[in-house]
Design a protein that fits this description.
The protein is α+β, with helices and mostly antiparallel strands. About 40% of the residues lie in helices and about 25% in strands. α2 runs antiparallel to α4.
């Protein structure tokens, strides 16, 4: 009996996970275009802890919650061990996933995005932007 209850719980958890992925029921037709991953890496002129916190706060204030945003995160570089493949020449990362290319384009032209740039760019030594189509994902 204990094994049956455990199996039922596992099946329920798997079913819940399947339904939660992408917030659409299984078997639903995928959208016609992939989501867009917008990853930005800022290297600061003044990369003191206070200035890093300031930029993270500005990202949260101006760049979060834009229409069509599926995911948002920002933060300082992690203090992970050195490895040959880990790039550590940046201070703050921004990760936004947009449901469609059109959502990304609206974000790029949004007044809050432009205000963020105007207020923060004086402390940017380098900004690298990596935009990608997210394989296996579909806009919802």
């Amino acid at each position: 009996m204990r094994a049956i209850r455990g199996g039922v719980l596992v099946l329920a958890a798997v079913a819940a996970g399947v339904l939660a992925v992408g917030d659409r029921p299984t078997g639903a037709a995928p959208a016609s275009e992939p989501m867009i991953g917008h990853m930005v890496y800022f290297t600061l002129t003044d990369n003191s802890p206070a200035k890093v916190r300031e930029l993270v706060g500005a990202c949260e204030k101006y760049l979060a919650k834009h229409p069509g945003e599926a995911y948002f995160a920002t933060g300082p570089r992690a203090k992970t061990p050195d490895r040959d493949v880990v790039v550590k020449d940046w201070d703050v990362a921004l990760h936004i996933v947009f449901k469609t290319t059109a959502d990304y384009e609206r974000y790029a032209d949004a007044p809050r995005h432009k205000q963020f740039i105007d207020e923060q760019k004086a402390n940017w030594k380098q900004v690298r932007v990596f935009d990608s189509e997210l394989a296996g994902s579909q806009g919802q």
